[in-house]
From TrEMBL:
Superkingdom in the source lineage: Bacteria
Enzyme Commission identifier(s): 4.1.1.45
Pfam families associated with the record: Amidohydro_2
Ranges for domain Amidohydrolase-related: 6-331
Originating species: Fictibacillus arsenicus
Alphabetized InterPro entries for the sequence: ACMSD, Amidohydro-rel, Metal_Hydrolase
GO BP: any one term: secondary metabolic process
Name of the protein in its database record: 2-amino-3-carboxymuconate-6-semialdehyde decarboxylase
Uppermost EC category: lyase
Keyword Membrane: no
Length: 348
C-alpha cells in the first residue's frame, strides 16, 4: 500500500536570524547564538532557552533525516519562543515577516518536500490579519501557527474575534501550539514546563474556544492542536459535567463535547492506547501524524505511534499518516494555484 507520510508538526528558524535585542532593545527577544558549525543556542535575556542543531535551519539536513525516517513532506512552522506577542505590534510584525519569508523560500526551493505555516502578531488583530493575508495570498503558505494565549489572555478574548472571523472566512488552517504556559512559576524543576505545563496550557486554550461560544460562532474554523491536544481530550467529560451542573455559566447551545469534534489534533501522544481513545472520541479523520522535529521530545521515527497502533484499517492508517493533513492544509488545491500563478507570471 503506497502511503504518503506528512509530518505536520516540525519547527524551523532562519540561520541568519536577526538580533532584535540589539535592534530594538529589551531582553525578551530570542537571539540565535552559534556555538559551532552544526549548532546554536537560542538565548533569551542572556540565558540559554534551548540548544538546537543545524537541523533546525538547514533544509538539506532535514531532507536527509526525512529520507532516513520515511517522511515524504514536512510542514514547517516557527518556534513558539519567536512569537513575541509581548512586543510592540510593528516590531513583532517585522519578526514575523522575516520568518514567514524564510519558510516560504524554503518551501519554494523544495516544493515536493515541504509545506509552510506562518506566524502573525496576535497582540494586534489588524496587524495579525494583514500578515495572515500576506502569508496566504502573497507567500503561498498553507496556514498559520498561533500560541495558546496572548500575553495571558485566553483565545476567547474579544480582541481576537475579528482574527478568527477572517480565518474562517478565508478558510485558513490554524495550528495552535502551547507557549508561555500557565503555572510556569511552579515548574522550574524536572522540565515540567514541557511535560505538564504545555499539555495543560493546550487544554485551557481548547476549552476557552469551546466554552466561550467561539466554535459555535465560527463552526467552519479549521483548528489543529499540538501534542495530541495535550490533556484536553481526557478532560472533555469533566467539561461536559460542568456545563450540565452550571447552567448559569452556559454560553453555548450544546455541551463542550459537541464542539470538540470540530477540532483536529496531531498524533504526538506517544501511545497507541491514546490514539485509539482519540479515534473513538473525535474520529480517525481528525488526527494527523506529527513529530515535533527536530527537538528532544520528538517522536522517532515520525509516525511511530500510528505504526504501532495495530488495529487500524488501511484507510485509517493512510489518512492519519498523510491524507488528513493534506486535506486540512488544502495541499493539492494550493499547489495547483501556485502552479497556475507561476505559469501566468512567466507569460505562459
Amino acid at each position: 500500500m503506497e502511503v504518503l507520510r506528512i509530518d505536520f508538526h516540525t519547527h524551523i528558524i532562519p540561520e541568519s536570524f536577526p538580533d532584535f535585542a540589539e535592534k530594538y532593545g529589551g531582553e525578551r527577544w530570542p537571539v540565535l547564538n552559534r556555538t559551532c558549525a552544526c549548532g546554536a543556542a537560542i538565548m533569551v535575556g542572556g540565558k540559554n532557552f534551548r540548544d538546537v542543531t543545524d537541523q533546525v535551519w538547514d533544509p538539506k539536513k532535514r531532507i536527509e533525516d526525512m529520507d532516513r525516517e520515511g517522511v515524504d513532506i514536512q510542514v514547517l512552522s516557527p518556534i513558539p519562543v519567536t512569537f513575541s506577542y509581548w512586543a510592540p505590534p510593528e516590531q513583532a510584525e517585522a519578526m514575523a515577516r522575516i520568518q514567514n519569508d524564510f519558510i516560504a523560500e524554503t518551501v519554494n526551493e523544495y516544493p515536493d518536500r515541504f509545506a509552510g505555516l506562518g506566524t502573525v502578531p496576535m497582540q494586534d488583530a489588524d496587524t495579525a490579519i494583514r500578515e495572515m493575508d500576506r502569508c496566504m495570498n502573497e507567500l503561498g503558505l498553507h496556514g498559520i501557527e498561533i500560541g495558546t494565549n496572548v500575553n495571558g489572555q485566553n483565545l476567547d478574548h474579544p480582541s481576537f474575534l475579528e482574527f478568527f472571523k477572517k480565518a474562517e472566512e478565508w478558510e485558513v488552517p490554524l495550528f495552535i501550539h502551547p507557549w508561555e504556559t500557565l503555572g510556569k512559576e511552579r515548574m522550574p524543576n524536572h522540565n515540567f514546563m514541557y511535560t505538564i505545563g504545555m499539555p495543560s496550557e493546550t487544554a485551557l486554550a481548547a476549552a476557552s474556544l469551546i466554552w466561550s461560544g467561539m466554535m459555535e460562532k465560527f463552526p467552519k474554523l479549521k483548528i489543529c492542536f499540538a501534542h495530541g491536544g495535550g490533556s484536553f481530550p481526557y478532560l472533555i467529560p469533566r467539561l461536559d459535567q460542568g456545563w450540565h451542573v452550571w447552567p448559569h455559566l452556559r454560553l453555548t447551545t450544546h455541551p463542550p463535547s459537541h464542539y470538540a469534534k470540530q477540532f483536529y489534533f496531531d498524533s504526538l501522544n506517544y501511545d497507541p492506547m491514546n490514539i485509539r481513545y482519540m479515534m473513538q472520541r473525535f474520529g480517525s479523520d481528525k488526527i494527523f501524524m506529527g513529530s515535533d522535529y527536530p527537538f528532544l521530545l520528538r517522536e522517532v521515527n515520525p509516525g511511530k505511534v500510528l505504526d504501532e497502533t495495530v488495529d487500524l484499517t488501511n484507510e485509517q492508517r493512510k489518512a492519519m499518516l498523510g491524507g488528513n493533513a493534506a486535506a486540512f492544509l488544502n495541499l493539492e488545491k494550493r499547489k495547483r494555484g501556485a502552479a497556475v500563478a507561476s505559469h501566468s507570471n512567466t507569460g505562459g
